[in-house]
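Q: May I have one protein plus its fold?
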Amino acid sequence: MPPKSARVIRSENADPSLKDGVLSVPEFVASREFEIKSMEQAQLNSKYASSTRVFQSLPRTLRRRAASHNVKRIPKRLRNRALREMHQSSAGASGPSATKPGVRGRKLYRLKMSRKLLKLAAKLRMLRQLPSEGSGTVRERIKSLSKQIEDIRKESSSDSKPILNNDMGSCDIVGENKLASPPPGRRYAKRQLRFVWTPTHIWHAKRFHMIKQWGFQIPQRPTQKCYRATNRAARTGAIAHETSYYGTMVAKSSNVQALVAKLTNRIGEPSQKTYHGWIYAPHKVTKGLVWCFESSVMIRVHPAVFTEVFEFVQSNSDTIYDCRYALGSLELAGPRALSCLSRVVHVENGPSSTKWLQISRYNCDSVPVGTTFVLGMKDPRFWKHSRRPPVSEPQPSLPDLIISMSSSDATSTTDAPHAAALLSSELRNNSYKNQHTTKQLSDQFQRTSPLANSIAKFVIDSSPSIPIFVTKTATTWCVICPWFWILPLWIKLVSVPEVHVGGAKQLHQINYERGHPTFPTDYPFLAQGWSENLVRSTVSKSVHDKLPQSKRKDYRQFENTVDPFGCDWFFLQKIIFGTKLHPSVSDGVAYGLFDAFTAREIHSMNDLFLAIEDSRLSQDHNKVLIELFDKNNSFHQQFAAGTYKVEPIFPPLPVHQIKLELINKGTISDHARIYRVPRSLLNAYRNGTCADKPDLKELIGFVTSGAYNLKLGNCTGIGCISADHKDKYVLVRNSGETLTRLAIWSKTK
């Protein structure tokens, strides 16, 4: 029988269902069924006609630009075929015809020098020493490392102790009463001079788009499409984010209560729970984490404001430690986040381990915000597979468990020795003692039974305890542990089937879908949010300018003098206060009049627009022109009531931070414009029959984050509007479009 062609569809030329002009329905249906199945089979044959290798037909989540040759990383049904293909490939490549010309000249020299440099750094690590922070050419650095190794060997006969206590090169890097120096890179140190790699950088660099920001290389988003997968994981499973770029500091003070009161703007005894909310330094700067233990306070904030908060805490405490490179963190979102985490965190027996095992059985969305566990765990790599830990005692109900945790003291969820180890540089460094390399772990597993799930028990018992801090935030579970234990924990965590991974963009998506603003993007009234808006506007403009002239959109016909590439808060402040200062302006003929000092006289809206455009030349881009509405501020009260008076030098514009949702169909994009709804056109907009474009004088705000919300099944947005707007309805128009849509808004929490 000849082979089937991938592009031939079998069909019946003579239709047997038609006899003597009479159609037999059963035979006709059977004939069509045969043809449809033949077409489907031809499509499959065509798809796999050129896919002769296993790695060309992997599931989406396993596809890589440079695929792994480890057969354990592909489905079991394909492993035998993959082994056979790799064997045939290696056998075929052994002949002389497959030999490729080697690397020559300068490229070969660079490779040899890099290899020598890596060998010297590895030799230093085996001697348990840190490489010196050398700079210069590769040859100079090789010479410096060689001299360092020679000096160490000469001093080996003396009583000098090694700097490191492990073969992995892990150590605690902390700055006492000063900012810590970035850690020297274990490999590729030259790439980490300006932007520090997080512990999981190598893992993320293969699978994610990375972004350089705030002194770190941050995983921004996966290379695969994952918008729906992120929503699905956040609703039914768990999604993990590596957030070690967040800055952590530990302060010691004789008056902890006063320090916490200044940071949180709250009076009273510090709670046993973790504080999640606004951090004041001394004014409101960002949302962060504050946790107290005895005379120490641990503060975790966004890297954009770390230096500002560090200097404020330093002036109000006895001693402060910069732990940015000593403590790393992960965040997990989703109802199964705590359950997945408990599979890889093998806790030691202690006062809080029972509560931890009990609460990890429940949906973590029901756990109150601020719930905190401080535990001790073993190296998660000691176990092959993640398994749910057993609970020996009777399992209480979730309400009873929460009540018992709230009514008891802090020792029910916090182990004092492990809490002290987490906050101490010396004890954190002790947790790295004899940290196993991958080769050492492989040797340990080879000595055990193939059916065993872990290495020998005496090795596990003799290994040091690792302090771990777990707390519940508004949308995620935050995990903090020593910096060089983040990677082992991450590797085991992502192997859990229910866990998906995400970057900074996915964390923004989760917050957005739940109606929570994301710092700093959705906080334009703060200095960091203002700078972020300027950066995004500049990037959007540069991308637009690189397009050919035929592909560029003419924004002038849509936006007039408003910046089309971002949220133009400068224009909003000037148009609102300008119309108040010149109440007699009208939509007259565009003409210009100037006074004796060549200043433009404002008689029409066009004059006001031109005056605003001229004032951009003297604009201070670093000055924040809007501020969040404060009910205790007298000017804000007058502004909201409409009884305020405006001076020629305009004050910052009071705004409300809001979330909005479209009433009818439509889309909302970033930096969309928000307008007042004319009363006469409200019913028309409700019915979707009005296509009038609002006037610029009706502009009241902008959308900082807008997209389709899969959780609600509708387009929503987060933004800011003028504090004098009272109506619950607004109009939304995307930048560069004429279509306007009706939306309803409410304040964010």
